[in-house]
Amino acid sequence: MKIAVIGAGAIGGSVASFLKKAGEDVCLIGHRDQVDAVNQNGLTIKGVRAIQTVRMPAAVKMTGPCDLAIFAVKTQDIEEAFAANCDYLESGLILTTQNGIQADNLLSSHFERERQLTSIVMFGATYVKPGEITFNFEGDWIIGRPFTPLDPTTHKVAEVLSKAFKVVVTPNIVGMKYLKLFVNFNNCIPALIGKSMQETYSDMGLCRLSIMLLKEGIGIIQQAKIELVSMPDFPKEKIFGLADMPLDQATEIIHKTLTGLSKEPLYGSILQSIMRDKNSEIDFINGEVVHWANHLKLPVPLNNRIVDMVHEVERTRNFFTVQEVKKVFGLEGVLT
Predict the structure, then answer these.
(1) What is the pLDDT of residue 261?
(2) Quick count: other Cβ atoms within 10 Å of Cβ 316?
(3) What is the pLDDT of residues 185-215, one digit of tens each?
(4) Which of 113, 151, 194, 263 is the most buried (most CB within 10 A)?
(5) Beta bridge partner(s), residue 43
(6) pLDDT tens digits, one per residue of 236-292
(7) Does residue 143 sit in helix, strand or coil?
């Protein structure tokens, strides 16, 4: 397959590099500074697969048609990415990689639904600078169809991607995406204070806030009668268990889990956008719960406040202190 990876951030850069290294015909589409760095020096990947530099063509927009276009920009950048590359997206398959639920709905106004595939990325990466990415940890790349049944084409795409990643094909991708939404729920708090996941969740008060947000969010999704589906190696019972267990017990589990995610600092997708002076995907993560709560006319004060605070950081480029966050949510007395 001739593959265009649209988006040269952490996930896009990782996907393009490892597929190129596996022998695929790949072009990476990114911003000018990213493109210049890759064309001049290649893209350097550090982390759990050791240090390697991969050379591949890079451009600020597509220069010809492809068999598979992988959208690896954030959900809020989907429309801009489509507009920049639409001249060469009239044929071929489309694969989304975004967190949240809405990317496929946004693109469905531009493409026949039979051309659309979607995915859940369970591996982790961090954008360091143009031309450099840290690949933090391995994980599945779960592939499916958002609007149509699985077909041989889906398996063909999975076969190509499996040259570089552990790929799983599922008929239940939408239910899994809702489960992944709650896996990403923890990304909002590091974005408030400007610290890594490991630093953030070394504070027990912030771990407690994470569980409070989760409990509120799960309650809304259950009220909306949305079914969460287990992912390979990540059963839905993990999320439901955290939401159901006593707050202190769940707080301890979040602390142990998120401080041990990676030896390298892991910043989370929302903070990574803010660190690059871009708006984040908060409206498509915690904001998805707020959307459903508004639709159901139910209160979600915690997630509402989190979304507003992340937007404040986006506007001001000033982070909150840990104590300021704790005060907003009544957690001043929780020990670090």
Answers:
(1) 80
(2) 8
(3) 999 999 999 999 999 999 999 999 999 999 9
(4) 194
(5) 54
(6) 999 999 999 999 999 999 999 999 887 888 898 999 999 989 999 999 999 999 999
(7) strand
How many Cβ atoms sit within 10 Å of the Cβ of residue 44?
19
Q: For residue 170, which amino acid is it?
A: T
Burial of 217 from C-beta contacts in 10 A (0-12 / 13-18 / 19+) = buried
Confirm if 283 and 293 have CB atoms less than 8 A apart.
no
Q: With cut-offs at 50, 70 and 90, classify the pLDDT of residue 334.
A: low
Within 8 A by CB and 6+ apart from 321, the residues are 193
Alpha-carbon torsion angle 146, 147, 149, 155, nearest 10: -40
Residue 28: count of CB within 10 angstroms of its CB: 29
- Give the pLDDT confidence score for residue 336 in this predicted structure: 52
Helices (H), 169-299: 173-183, 188-193, 197-200, 204-223, 236-244, 247-258, 269-275, 286-296
116-121 and 43-47 strand pairing = unpaired
CA distance 218 to 239: 9
Name 217's Cβ contacts closer than 8 Å, sequence gap at least 6.
Answer: 182, 185, 286, 289, 300, 303
Domains along the chain with CATH numbers:
2-171 (3.40.50.720), 177-328 (1.10.1040.10)
Q: Give the type of residue at 48.
A: V
Give the pLDDT of residue 299: 97
- Quick one: which of 315, 161, 182 has its CA closest to 243? 182
Full-model pTM = 0.91
- Kindly give the pairing relationship between strand 25-29 and strand 58-59: parallel
Tell me what the pLDDT averaged over the chain comes to. 96
Rounded CA-CA distance 83/111 in Å is: 13
CA atoms within 13 A on the CB side of 205: 16
With cut-offs at 50, 70 and 90, classify the pLDDT of residue 159.
very high
Element (H, E) at 21: helix 10-21
Amino acid 262: pLDDT: 79
- The reported pLDDT for the residue numbered 263 is 81
